[in-house]
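Hi there,

I know you've been waiting on this one. I reran it after we fixed the sequence typo, so this is the corrected version. Both the input and the resulting structure follow.
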Amino acid sequence: MTLDGSASTDPDTDDIPYLTYKWTWKVGTANNQAEGANPTIQLPVGATTVTLVVNDGRQNSNADTVVITVLGPFTAKTSIQPEEINRNDPREEYVTVLMLLSEIAVTDIDDSQALIMTPGQIPAVAQSAFDYREGQTFMTTIMALFDKDALMKAIPANGGVTLTVTGKLTSGRSFSGSAPVTIVGTITPDVTAPVPNPMEWAKADPNFKDPNDPNHWPGEPRAVCSIPGRTTEPGRPAGRSP
C-alpha cells in the first residue's frame, strides 16, 4: 500500500525548500520506518498504527497517526473429488472442487477470473456459483473443474498432497480453500525430454570404432545388433561370413 503525506504544510513559511517525512509503525516487536511523502509499504493482516512526523529543517511537527486495517482472504470450506486421484484412470478427466463461503453473496464472486489451483497454477476449465442454505445460514457454493493431466504434470511424485484453490471477489479481495488428496498410479516419464544421439557421442570420441561394440560405451548398457550369418567388424562393411 502507498502512504500519502503530501498534504503536509509548513505554516511559518521558512526558507527551507522542502519538508522531510518520517513514517513509523510496529509489527509485533519489530519497529519499522519509511521516508518520503508517498512511500509504499507492506503491512500484515490486521490493524496497524502508522505515525507520521514531518520536519521543516528546524523542528518536527506533532505526530499524526492513522490506523490501517488489512483484510485477509476469506477462507472457504473446501472439498476435492476424487480424494484419491489415479494418474492412469482414463475415466477421471477432471478434478472437482466444491467451495462453501459464508457472508459472501453470489454477486460478490468475480466470475471473470478463473479459480487457480496450486501446485501448478492451474486455471479452472469450468466454474459456477450459486446460493446454498445450511440451516438458517445462507452460503455461496462454488463448483469448479480442473484438468487432471495438468495437475499430474505439476505433481511429480505419488503420495499425499494438499491442493489449494484461490479466487477473486469483485471488491478485489480474495478467497481460498485447501483440501488433502492422495496421488496414485504409474508415473509416466517425460517423453519430451531430449534423448542423446549415440552416433553424435561416437563422432566426438577419437577412439570411435564400432558403436555396436559394448566395450565402446563403458558404464552404459547398449544393445548389440547382430544378424545370423553376418558379421560386422570395425572398418569393414557388413557381409556374409565366409
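Quick highlight: The mean pLDDT is 81.

Best,
R. S.
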